[in-house]
Sequence to fold (67 residues):
Amino acid sequence: MIPRTFEDWKYCITEKCKIELTPDFARKRLETLKDASQQEAKVFIQHYGIIHWRNVVRWYSRVVKNA
Fold:
């Protein structure tokens, strides 16, 4: 199931995937995902769709902003 809220997404990252959602980790993921013309972002969009990609970029940005 694709998370639809920040809290659901955060749960998936931290609890299911056991990844520490640090500002540094979020910055690195943003560098990779924020430009839709980059290959990894294109693959992400192909797998999960543009709406989820936008949400994930926004959610990583939120983690960085709230650091």
Residues 32 and 40 are 7 Å apart (CA to CA). The radius of gyration is 11 Å.
